[in-house]
Design a protein that fits this description.
By secondary structure, the protein is α/β, with parallel strands linked by helices. It contains twelve helices and twelve strands. It is elongated, with a radius of gyration of 26 Å.
């Protein structure tokens, strides 16, 4: 006997005949692959979930879930329904803000973050630790912006959150200060010419690994060095911060980086963290988002997580 019966010939289902709360039962069973685990996820009894599943089967004229070695598996019809049902429930949760506390076990979100490479080791580990839950359908995407127009992603909806050192006041965007960022220099352990102190002469005479020019302009690095009547010999220009750390670790070059980043990557790459040998001003890191999405429960959650990351020690 075929487990999956065809849906109504019209290809549509009458919403007037279904309790929309049943769709949350469908979602929970689909995510967990189990009636009992779905009941636990929803805080319902197993008989209540089984009864709801029976009503769903009647409405859709399909078994929806059939027994498997590890619980239940979706039928062809259930697979076709899963995406639209989850998307619709998420739209309701966001629009009605009924999911104010944002439970990652029941949410299905694709968060897009504009964060500089230097902030990745600070921000991603804790976020991924929280989102890497078997019951969660959430994921994180790090978006690299056009640094000549860095805020466009927030304005056009291509990104949800941004971390920026030098935000410009922009209608429709909110920026909240998170922390001060102090610059340091990194060199490899066992550098033949640089020990546990770095002088101005050493800074000027030794080769440097640097990031590409648009990032340098954004961070105002060259301007600050020139104001000290210093120059640096740029030997290697790199596209991202992870390449910067790896290059310094395998060469005799110097790199100028934020302290928080340096302290996180130094043990991994066996780097020495040294004070900048001149007065390098601190920058301030800001958290940015589109004001029209301030009330979004998921974005409130992720903003609070990022705040907690930057108020704790690196």
């Amino acid at each position: 006997m075929n487990d999956a019966q065809p849906p109504p010939k019209s290809g549509t289902y009458d919403l007037h005949r279904i309790d929309l709360n049943l769709l949350t039962v469908f979602e929970a069973i689909y995510k967990t692959g189990s009636v009992s685990q779905g009941a636990k996820l929803l805080g319902m009894s197993q008989p209540a979930v089984s009864n709801a599943l029976s009503r769903l089967r009647l409405h859709f004229s399909d078994k929806l879930f059939v027994r498997s070695d590890r619980g239940v598996k979706p039928t062809v019809t259930a697979l076709r329904l899963a995406g639209p049902i989850t998307a619709s429930l998420n739209l309701l949760r966001t629009g009605l803000q009924i999911d104010a506390d944002f439970d990652i076990r029941t949410a299905n979100r694709h968060f897009r973050l504009i964060i500089h490479d230097f902030s990745v080791p600070s921000v991603l580990p804790k976020l991924l630790q929280m989102l890497d839950d078997p019951l969660s359908s959430c994921k994180i995407e790090v978006v690299t912006p056009n640094w000549t127009h860095p805020h466009e992603g927030l304005l056009n909806g291509d990104a949800d959150i941004m971390l920026d050192a030098f935000p410009q006041e922009t209608p429709g965007l909110a920026f909240e200060p998170l922390m001060d960022a102090e610059a340091v220099c990194i060199v490899r352990e066992g550098h033949p010419r640089i020990g546990h102190q770095l002088t101005r002469d050493q800074f000027a005479q030794n080769g440097h690994a640097v990031l590409k020019i648009d990032v340098q302009r954004r961070l105002q690095v060259a301007h600050t060095i020139m104001s000290e009547k210093l120059s640096r010999r740029e030997v290697c220009i790199l596209p991202n911060a992870s390449d910067l750390a790896a290059t310094v670790a395998t060469s005799d070059l110097i790199a100028l980086v934020p302290r928080r980043y340096a302290e996180l990557v130094a043990p991994i790459y066996r780097l020495r963290v040294l004070p900048v040998p001149f007065d390098y001003p601190k920058a301030k890191i800001f958290l940015g988002w589109a004001t029209e999405r301030t009330g979004d429960p998921g974005l409130r959650w992720i903003r609070n997580v990022i705040r907690s990351i930057f108020t704790s020690k690196a």
